[in-house]
Amino acid sequence: MSLSFTAVQAQEKIAVTAADYSNNEVEMADLMRSEGKIYVLVGVIVLIFIGLLAYVIQTDRRVSKLEKVRQTK
Amino acid sequence: MRQSWWKFLTVGLLLYTLVGGLLLEVPRLPILNETIRALHFHVTMWFGMILMLLVAAWHSVKYLRSNDLKHDDMALEFTNAAILFGVLGIVTGMLWAKFTWGDYWSGDPKQNASAIGLLMYFAYLILRGSLSDAQQRGRIAAVYNLFAFAAFIPLIFVLPRLTDSLHPGNGGNPGFNAYDLDSKLRLVFYPAILAWTLLGTWIATVRVRIRRLEREVEENRIND
Fold it and tell me: What is the mean pLDDT of residues B165-182?
């Protein structure tokens, strides 16, 4: 699916091809990945996400509790 | 937690976005290099923002038809969450632009248009803050919100496409014209849009529930 509108076909797109996945000319973080350090980064980000998530869930629960108090009144 | 099935979905999709966005294979493109992964984080902010603004506009219509303040709460809190996403979108876009386009702000048409769009929504909040009667505030804010949404869509989607822009799909852009066509990127990109939008919805609905409780407390105080 293309996000472009038919009215603006003038903006041609360069397709991403299989060659874009296998080329070695473009520098990527290959070393970082081969050393496994990328997993440290993934771990850090996921931990922060879980922490923030726990906070949101706790807030949600607190609101639920207040809603229950109101209903029983 | 209330209505929790979609909240579990949110958590699952967000975990998938974070891990898949960092680890799955991406095309090796010049200029972008690894930063292509910002697609799943920066671009999705704008998609999430627009979806939430759509919900807000829908509730503004419902408010105008019913004069029921619960729709005004929904419109306000979805707009609040959308603005949060928009600010994050513009900040992350600036950081990304520094390393791919060479500058935090290049006066790119889409950058300028999204900044104007954000200002319009800041004005929405200021407008609300200046009115003290709840029904009057609801009505004026709902009408303004519909005008703002009607202006925001062409600002973001149409005007930048009519001129040269650094953003993909807008004029000539050397680095990133085809990301939305690539199936491997879409594998994370589409779930990421859903994930971030659901997170925004979660935050918005919790705040709506708090507003309703506050209103009830207020009403009880008047009745007592």
Answer: 56
ipTM: 0.78
- Of B218, B204, B5, B223, which Cα lies nearest the Cα of B85? B204
Q: Best interface-test mutation with A: which of B28, B70, B100, B181 has the largest number of A CBs within 10 A?
A: B28
Give chain B positions within 8 Å (CB) of A21: 25, 27-28, 184
B101 by DSSP, 3-state: which?
coil
State pLDDT tens for residues B178-205: 455 578 888 999 999 999 999 999 999 9
Q: Let me know if residue A1 belongs to a domain.
A: no
Asked if residue A58 is part of any domain, the answer here is yes
- Which of B116, B113, B111 minimizes the C-alpha distance to B96? B111
Give B71-89 pLDDT, tens digit per residue. Answer: 999 999 999 999 999 999 9
Q: Is residue A16 part of a domain?
A: yes
Domain containing A20 equals: 6-72
Residue A6 phi, psi dihedral angles, 5° rounding: -65, -30
Single pTM value for the model = 0.88
Closest CA to B15 of A29, A31, A52, A14: A52
Query: What's the length of chain B?
Result: 224
Domain count along chain A? 1
